[in-house]
Amino acid sequence: MIPRVAPQDRMFFIVGRGRSGTTLLRSILDAHPNISVAPEGLFILYLYRGYRSRALTDRTVRSLAEHVFLEARMRRWKLDSRELAARLAAIADERTFARLCAEVYEAWADASMKTEHRLLGDKNPHYALFAEELAELFPVARFVHVVRDYRDNLLSYRNVPFDVASPAALAYRWRAYNAAILRAARRSPDRFHLLRYEDLVAQPGPTLAALCDFLGVAPDDSVLRAHDRDHGPKLDWHRHIWRPIDAELAGQWRLRMPPDQIRLADRICQPLGSTFGYEPATQAGTALRDAPGMALGWAMTRLERLVFRFPVWLQAMIINSYRRLTGNMIQ
Question: For residue 271, is the peptide bond before it cis, meaning its omega torsion is within 30 degrees of 0?
Fold first, then answer.
């Protein structure tokens, strides 16, 4: 019998810069019989500013339940909006914003027939910029910080229709995302677990065993067969989750990245890269020509935080418009 623990006390978050292996890890962990990791969504951030400090009356809870579905990707969660509203309204004890959000993850686990789940996970690269807020909102939640060599990360963005095209902007954003997670980790280091993408693909068994130990569940061989499961829409930029883990996915920058981009990435991403074991391949320095791209990266990163200060309907309009523009509606 699995102990009954409040859902907000069973939450964990997979965070990291996009194109770092967070989707791969999500698909792996969701194959574990005791772990449920929902599809990517941003409803916590949508609702945070409007509901975090409000008195959660029955009327407010009904409004919150409706606003969950302003996040367009929630349609992939197999949830009935009326059933979810009734489920949230039925919560009488410990009716907090965190409790209501966690109940949405519990509802997804139930709808997905994850009957033995102990942990409720959420994977979202955007949460990297809000790791401190999430750590405060869920005071016992754990965080898995997935990091990937910044040069492979930049290279991977060539294959997707979203984010920005500027290598300098992408390098800045790798640095900003990972620095934000490290800031949150310094406040409660025992709740953060660093997982390098390179270790995951080179030694999946030991790497995942250490992660399961951190999360408090027993290792299970099913996680190594996650690629055999149905992962939903087959997106080209997520094709690797349908295949066995491949160590050759790491270090591609050495073969495919132009020397000038390697130098640029080293200049911008060091010395932070070295803290994760990624040593520069060139003599890192500074270059004035990097400034416009870095300014773009700063602006994009700043906007990502700013948009969630808007009313929830305006957030939804901006984000859904961006997704339609980039062909990224179901990502």
Answer: yes
